[in-house]
Design a protein that fits this description.
Elements (H helix, E strand, L loop, with lengths): L10 H20 L1 H5 L54 E6 L6 H15 L3 E6 L8 H12 L3 E2 L4 H10 L2 E5 L5 H7 L3 H4 L3 E5 L9 H4 L7 E4 L2 H15 L6 E3 L6 H7 L2 H15 L6 E6 L8 H17 L7 E8 L6 H12 L6 E5 L5 H6 L2 E4 L10 H8 L4 E4 L4 H4 L6 E4 L6 H13 L1 H18 L2 H25 L1
Parallel strand pairs: 1-2, 1-4, 2-3, 4-5, 5-6, 6-7, 8-9, 8-11, 9-10, 11-12, 12-13
Bound molecules: 2-acetamido-2-deoxy-beta-D-glucopyranose (3 copies).
Pfam families: Glyco_trans_4_5, Glycos_transf_1
Keywords: Glycosyltransferase, Membrane, Transferase, Transmembrane, Transmembrane helix
GO molecular function, one term: glycosyltransferase activity
């Protein structure tokens, strides 16, 4: 896969590469935050691990989002006050099921920082805390402490007292439900009415009373996409015979750091050149990629089948297109998964090694988004809960070829910002056709990328997510107050 440049004997070439390298270092340092603190591999919380991310349009308690009408670019005005400013001096307790670099916890941390930004008193607890010496935990806790978020123990008297005192408790992911009884015990009913439950998963085993039996009694549930919210409603009713509380759909937004890289032409170019060079992909070649953890649910196998079909088609039809490549970003050879071995065996059997590139799992997705031409979102079955990588790719002006399932349908406008294909085997040929379409129609590809970017600017920025969350918190606090008065 990774092809390295042979060292050049020419000194001017050496200087050139040294300069490029320096430039890359500068860019990487500039954006280190964006590159490191990212949940790229687990962009789709639902069906992979408990990761997540969100944005929101609220079908349940507010009007549907307006149709995407392109607006002229807005001129950056003076920063307006945060929509969360009413949270100033409120005590908010955030309960995370774990602390790691996966989507769920990172998203809750983003909320912690937004709330700190408006002067809320934010306390954080991690229910399943691994060892003290874990480097990731250590650095994340320090990051929080540095930004004024108090990190407290999830157990014991302090935990209970903080929960009782808090104006609002945010419970993150279904699994965190275990914390309620384990820690609050007989006081749990005092805390439920002011608890907002943020849910990012859609996998079957979360529909268990062990986790969610208190769900009907919390102030509200906040869920990443309409389809996931509907799924929760169906499943809890049918399987568990419990009723969802008031449910808010909150689509995610892109972080400011990611947008900064995406909108920096120089950074993008340097990252693009560097990544392409390391993969052995020429500047004019067309690079399709899936950026997700490698697993059957993410559909890398079907993607490779489609890619192979499109190579055959291009050859048969003698189409004049630049060489096309496929990248699987999220590979983990050490995991020795049967699935990944299958992918590699397929590539060998079809003799397409020169066209397919496996890239190790990484949290730094920005360089790959800068380097590719088309993002393929091939999640299978119910699809993604939301799929943050999709809006991240759109920020980089990339068209999306996505399965017609899950949150992808709420992000992608078919025919405008990308093209949908069916899940499963029936999607293989349609995806192959869509790949050939984007390879042959350069203008179409670029226009789709631009439309995607416009859509991100309209509704998938951190600012939008902040507005959506603010509306939810306002409503929840209002109801808490009304209930207290009624008692
Ligand atoms: C929920 O149930 C309704 C009615 O049974 C069905 O039409 C809908 O597709 C289901 N939604 C999900 C997401 O499962
Ligand atoms: C990818 O990961 C494998 C296993 O950890 C390692 O041996 C290999 O060097 C890595 N490749 C690159 C390009 O970093
Ligand atoms: C997406 O649009 C294409 C045409 O642009 C159409 O053929 C296809 O059926 C659409 N798919 C879905 C799921 O709407």
């Amino acid at each position: 896969m990774a092809k390295h440049n042979t060292p050049s004997s020419s000194s001017s070439a050496a200087v050139f590469f040294r300069k490029r390298w320096m430039m890359l270092v500068v860019v990487l340092v500039m954006f280190s935050v964006a590159l490191i603190i990212r949940s790229g591999m687990d962009s789709s919380p639902c069906d992979c691990r408990q990761d997540v991310v969100l944005g929101s349009e609220n079908k349940f308690s507010s009007a549907s989002p307006p149709p995407p009408t392109p607006r002229p670019p807005t001129i950056t005005a003076a920063p307006s006050p945060s929509p969360l400013s009413f949270m100033k001096s409120k005590l908010v307790l955030l309960v995370s099921h774990e602390l790691s670099l996966s989507g769920g916890p990172l998203l809750l941390m983003e909320l912690a920082f937004l709330l700190r930004g408006v002067g809320a008193d934010v306390q954080w607890m991690t229910n399943q805390r691994r060892s003290e010496t874990d480097n990731v935990i250590y650095s994340l806790e320090h990051k929080m402490l540095n930004r004024g978020v108090q990190v407290i123990s999830a157990k014991g008297e302090e935990a209970v007292n903080t929960a009782l005192k808090a104006d609002l408790v945010v419970l993150n992911t279904a699994v965190a439900g275990k914390w309620l009884d384990a820690v609050l015990k007989e006081k749990v009913h005092l805390v439920l009415p002011k608890t907002l439950w943020w849910i990012h998963e859609m996998r079957g085993h979360y529909f268990s009373l062990e986790y969610v039996k208190h769900l009907p009694f919390v102030a509200g549930a906040m869920i990443d996409s309409h389809v996931t919210a509907e799924y929760w409603k169906n499943r809890t009713e049918e399987r568990l015979r419990i009723k969802m509380p008031k449910t808010y759909v909150v689509h995610l937004g892109n972080s400011k750091e990611l947008m900064e890289v995406a909108e920096n032409v120089v950074a993008k170019r340097v990252l693009r050149e560097h990544v392409r060079e390391s993969l052995g992909v020429q500047n004019d070649d067309i690079l399709f990629a899936i950026i997700n953890s490698v697993s059957r649910g993410k559909g890398q196998d079907l993607f490779l089948h489609s890619f192979h079909e499109s190579l055959i088609y291009i050859k048969q039809q003698k189409l004049q297109v630049p060489p096309i490549h496929a990248a699987i970003v999220g590979s983990d050879i050490t995991a020795q998964s049967k699935f990944e071995s299958e992918l590699r065996a397929f590539v060998e059997s079809k003799k397409i090694q020169g066209h397919v590139h496996f890239v190790n799992k990484t949290l730094a997705v920005a360089p790959y988004l800068a380097a590719i031409d088309v993002l393929v979102q091939n999640s299978q079955a119910r699809g993604e809960c939301f799929g943050r990588i999709t809006i991240e790719a759109m920020a980089f002006q990339l068209p999306i070829l996505g399965t017609a399932a899950g949150g992808t349908r709420e992000i992608l406008v078919n025919g405008s910002t990308g093209l949908l294909h069916p899940v499963g085997k029936q999607g293989v040929i349609p995806l192959a056709r869509n790949m050939v379409k984007l390879a042959t129609h350069v203008e179409r590809r670029l226009t789709m990328g631009k439309k995607g970017y416009e859509r991100v600017k309209q509704r998938f920025l951190e600012r939008h997510m902040e507005q959506r969350i603010a509306a939810v918190l306002k409503d929840v606090l209002r109801n808490v107050k009304a209930n207290q008065k009624a008692q």
